[in-house]
Amino acid sequence: MLRRVVRSVIPGQRPTARRAAGGAGGGAVVGALSLLPALFLSLLLLVAACDKPVPAPGNDTATVPPPPPQAGVTPPPVVDAPWDSAGGAVFLTTGPNATTAAVIFPALASDAEVESTRLDPQPYRGGAFDLLANGRIVGQVTVTSIVPPDAPEECSSWPLVQLSDVGADTASRSWVVGFQHGRLIPIAYDSIAALPSADSSRLAMEVARLASGLPNDTVSSLRGIPYQVRRAYRFALAPGVEGLVAEVLRTLNQEANPTQEHLLVVAERDSLSRGRWDVSYSERAAGGEEVLESSELLAIGRYAPTRDAVVLLARYVGDGVVYALLERTGSRRWRLRWTSPYVGC
Closest Cα partner for 176 from 98, 255, 112, 233? Predict the structure, then answer.
């Protein structure tokens, strides 16, 4: 929600001019004036008026408010958490098939209404994009043409484009996100589902421990119910430093009112933590199954070798999706950098 802060400036009072006071010699002057012609009297009164002190200027300066917008002109939406331009002007996500992509315009504010017909992907026609899946580049493609939107009239969607050079192999056709060529250096990660059984069980126990220790557990009906690890990914942040992104949930299966809670957890560990994970960022959401969001990892990477890591997520809410970017700002410190507008029905 866009919030507007209105500042008002109250100018201070300017001091009034001091009145001239008569001194000890005032009677002599009046006596002398009574002997002078009327013209000389007028001259002295003029001189006295010029000797009055100039009022001191006020200490505050009133700020001139900006002019109101012109009629018929809609100001652009304000981006609460701006997208880092190093990531490119747009990125791609999978469309109806592997050779069709949705073009995401991250400059739009998170509360904007997305209208695909008003967003122009034409400038990116002929542009090269790196396709990513499972933490690595699986192909490089070119945007060849614009595809008419296929979303129902009551739904919002991003514009679609056709891609060329998508490989026929399974890895290439399973891509999940595409960045303009050279914009993102992917960081490889291991999924908990692909780990050996012993490592997978150990990581699941660690993630459940982290989730149980998080503050702001406000859903009393779910207390005591164990957490289940839906997704978890390990990756290398730096020599000797590991990162973890995990989604966990717990469910109360009541027929009349089923309740779920989803947690998104980002954690780190290094030699100083003695092998234990420390939570660096977390989000908690609770509600009914039909409205609660779930998160899918799209990419982990860096915009340059000297830059810190970012995590791009897809958050599925109801029948739509919101994209989000988490950014590492230091050791054990992450923040939500950017979110996209909602698209869907």
Answer: 98
